[in-house]
Structure formats: structure tokens, C-alpha cells
Amino acid sequence: MQKTILITGCSSGIGLSAAQILKQRGYRVFATARKEADVEKLKGLGLESLMLDVNDSHSIKAAIDKILSLSNGTLDAVFSNAGFVTAGAVEDLNRDMMREQFETNVFGCMEVVNLILPIMRKQGYGRIVLNTSILGIITMPYRGAYAASKFALEGFGQTLRQELRDSPISVSMIVPGPIQSKLRENAYKIYKKTLEPSPSFYKNLYQKMEKYFFNPTPSERRVTLPPDAVVKKLIQALESPRPKAHYYIGLPAYIFAFLRRVLPDSALNWVIAKIAQAEAN
After folding, report:
1. Which residues are catalytic?
2. Contact status, residue 5 vs residue 77, Cβ threshold 8 Å
3. Which residue of 86, 109, 157, 164 could cross-link 80, Cys pair, CB 3.0 to 4.6 Å?
4. Is the dihedral of CA 42, 47, 50, 55 positive or negative?
């Protein structure tokens, strides 16, 4: 029987790659995006697509209701992928900026999962895969809003695994390091609208950040992987008889996850400070 999967955030990058590869693999993919133009683009690529804005409860429910009507009330899996980055020092992030970061990266994901869980319980199986980040395991300066949201998503996923331990529903976290996507491009657009026009103690640093964060350094490009590297691990999470809690993608993700386990906070912070300093120079 053909497996069905809902994927959020399919307009580009990881979500788009996942939708295309899983369709080729035989899945019935419901590829969603929040803009009508992106939905039409996805349809033009031969994908079954509909609008789903994770910041809008009505949009989430309408999309899931439509998917269930198309799939005879069942859904094998969900890949919660939608997300974005708000860059900047914590003291420059106002409440509205933090709220927007959490609405998309955390609350939208939670709502999608909570609406689908009763369906999976009723049908007696299901796979839930959350796209987190290595910045949900460790932190880096000037990514505080994003890291906080990914730490929250990590906590949500871990708790969900515990609560579903004796059920036929599995939960896995995809933990990428640097991946080729529009994440930084979109982060730059947000920065230009929010932080760049405002006075800040970090103004000089932000000018440097425009060069190294929004435009990755040559050394970072060497360890940046294409989106299909994430999809390979997604397939494992979807198809393994015993899916893991975490699937790390890329050498930086493996290294930082290891350092988080073995180093005291002071030593880990020293390492991260050296990396941040090297990026800025």
C-alpha cells in the first residue's frame, strides 16, 4: 500500500527536496507551503500541493482536513520542516520578533502534530519527524531566537517520544548542521527590515555578520551539504523498523553533539567563542 506523508515548508530547500525524492520513492506526498504562488510552483513540478501556513490555526486545520479527505482519513507520516532564522544579539530582539520565531518554528509544529496524533492513534501507526537543528543542541552567538526555538522543539520532541513510548507511533528529530537552503537568504531579508535600521551596541559586529553569516565563509561552504543529505536521514526515520531519536547530518553536527556530551559548559563555550571569532575575522 502506498504510504502517505505531509511535509510542511516545501517552497524550497529541504522541504522541496524531501517532497520530490519521497514522491520518486513511491510515497503519496502532500507538499505544503504558505504562499499560493509556491503551491502553484509545486503543482507545476508534479507534486500534490496545498496551502498550509503554520502561523495560522485555520490554515493548518483546513489543510489537514483536506489531506484526510483525499487519503481516506489516514496519514502515515508527517515531516515538520517549516522554519526560519531571526539573526541578532538577544538584547536586540523584541518580543514581537521572538513571538514570530516561536510561532513558526515551534507552535505551528506543535499544532500540526497535535491534530494528526488522534488520526495516527486511530489507525494504529504513524511516524512523526521534526526538523530541528544542531542549534537545538548547542548555541552560537547572534542566533539566540533561532536556538531558543530549536531547543524548545527538541524538548517537545523528546517529551513526545516519552509519552508515545508504548504506542505504535514513533518520533524522530532530524538534526542538520549547515545545509544549502534559503534559510540565510531569508534571514538576511528579516535582518534588513528589523535590526539594520535600529541603533545597537552590536552595530559594527552586524556589519561584519553581513559578510560571514549571511554569506558563508569558504571553510563553511566546504562542510555545507545539499538538502538531499537530510532526505537520506529522513528516509531512515520513516522506514527503519526501530527509528532513532536523533539523526545528525554533516560533520559539524556530529562534532558539536559529541562535544556537548563530553565537555563542561566552560570548555564548550570557549570552543564556540573561538569559532565565532574566526568567522568574524
Report:
1. 146
2. yes
3. 109
4. negative
